[in-house]
Amino acid sequence: MSHRLFALMLAVALCISCLAPPGLAEDTADVWVDPKLPDDAIRWDETHPELLDKDMLVAKSAILIEATTGEVLFEKNADEILYPASTTKILTGYIALQMADLDNDVVTISQEAIDLVPSGYQKVPLSAGEKVNMKDLVGAMLVMSGNEAANAIAEYLSGSIEAFADLMNQTAQMLGCSSDTHFANPSGVHDDNHYTTARDLAIIAQEAMKDDLFREIVSKPTYDMPDTNMRPARTLVGGTSILKAEDSYFYSAATGIKTGFTNAAGYCFIGSARRGGIELISVVLYTSKAGRWTDTKKLMEYGFTQVESISPESLYAESPRVIDISGFSLEDSGHGELTLGIRAVDETRDMTIVGNQEKIDLLRENFSEVSVIRWTREFRAPVNMGDVMGILTFYAEDGTTADYELVATRSIAARENAPPTLEQIEAYTAADESPWPRFSFDYLVPPAIVLAALWLIMRFIKKHRRKRAKAPDIRPPKKRYLR
Q1: Which of 369, 387, 408 is where one domain is finished?
Q2: What is the CATH number of the domain that holds 173?
Q3: Distance (Å, whole) CA 228 – CA 130
Q4: Which residue range forms the structural domain that includes residue 128?
């Protein structure tokens, strides 16, 4: 009996040792069966996207973040360990764009890079000995989900699939992924030791989307691959339905990113969308074939109701600066009051502020505390519409700054015969080449009049003093004595 018990315990131990990390299923199913929403699940209302419940998503795990800050807007089992399938290629593409010389690196496809791809999983395809530019390999990998392209990139950059997998894990840790993420290959073909979480995939996607070329590639439903030494030029068609205008799952706000599927991973999708200056990134893992698109749309529409975007110009325009102009014409209907408009010094720079309603409202109330105005001219007429009156410097949350010109929104004429302004006097003096002060006979008139008046007054007083009659000289009477 003891021998039988020991044999049973040994068998159980062997089985446990062969299992993948908790929560993972092995890729042994011959036929994939799409998961579905429970019959009693609350149905999502497209007219009220702000009402999103976890049970409205088919996906086993999901997360939605704001792309700029990484703020989590929605999550469902976001830390559950699952297989990522081909969404793995986001990290492979990110590493390639960071390390390779995209314009000059030419990769020769090895037979091993092709043989490592399971039968039926060669997407592009590529042939052994074919020479392909690194940029085109990345494009084929991300758009067409080329597994052989991913292997070729890994071999070129690290020498082997194993060495590149180590690099992937190091990069994931550097980006802030958890210990629940581990990559075993660059493509995402099934491996029990190849797993991650929705949260960590969102972190990787957020970093990858900071690369302009990466964004450009994943935003297109097709990729034009030039000719090689073995094949003519061709157009690779991807499987991202929400990017295809003719597809029933097309989503106009979508900007990428990557699909994935294996029997063990189910249907996966890491998406991005942009609307009104707001950019979102979503991850859905182990969902249905249609669910990867419907779940993504639900998440995105929800996110757009939770986040607001606004520019410094719009914040200023809600409460523009009003100044008083002196020396204005008496005919000016506004009595010298001037509202200042705003104009970006660098119009190509995007200073859009993204955040929840509370953050934006707080910024509205304290806009004067995150901006400084430097006045550049005197508030005196005449003023022409469009004149720059000052420079407003906005200090963003990330420490960057941007300058905006405060401009006159109307013209204000100067009052006739108004005394010259300080600026006019300085300009008039600076234009005089003579080292001596300017002289005009007009300068003598006021003092001459004053001196003449004083002189006349003195003459008048002196004349009247001469004509005044002298008082009679009355001598005291002589003393008389009575006898």
Answers
A1: 408
A2: 3.40.710.10
A3: 7
A4: 45-306
**483 falls within a domain:** no
Q: Are 402 and 351 in contact (CB under 8 A)?
A: yes
In a shared domain, residues 301 and 254: yes
| 90 CB-near residues (< 8 Å, 6+ apart) | 142, 201, 204, 205, 208, 257, 258, 270
Q: How far is CA 417 from CA 350, 409, 414, in A?
A: 47, 25, 9
Pair 336, 192 in one domain: no
Across the strands, what pairs with 404? 344, 392
Q: Which helix (H) or strand (E) holds 262?
A: strand 254-262
d(CA 294, CA 59): 10
State how far the Cα of 443 lies from the Cα of 461, in Å rounded to an integer: 29
CA–CA distance, 244 with 155 (Å, rounded to integer):
32
Q: Which amino acid is at 164?
A: F
Task: Tell me the catalytic residues.
Answer: 86, 89, 145
Cα 226 to Cα 149, 180, 282, 473, distances in angstroms: 15, 39, 32, 135
Q: In this predicted model, what pLDDT tens digit does every residue of 390-417 receive, in sequence order? A: 999 999 988 899 999 999 999 999 998 7
Which of 306, 337, 357 represents a domain boundary (last residue)? 306
Is 441 inside any structural domain? no
Strand arrangement, sheet containing 401-408: 322-324, 337-344, 401-408, 388-395, 371-375
Residue 312: closest CA among 320, 303, 324, 302? 320
Give pTM, 2 decimals: 0.75
pLDDT in tens, 41-58: 889 999 999 999 999 999
Phi-psi region of 229 (alpha: psi -120 to 50; beta: other; left: phi over 0): alpha
pLDDT given for residue 427 in this prediction:
74
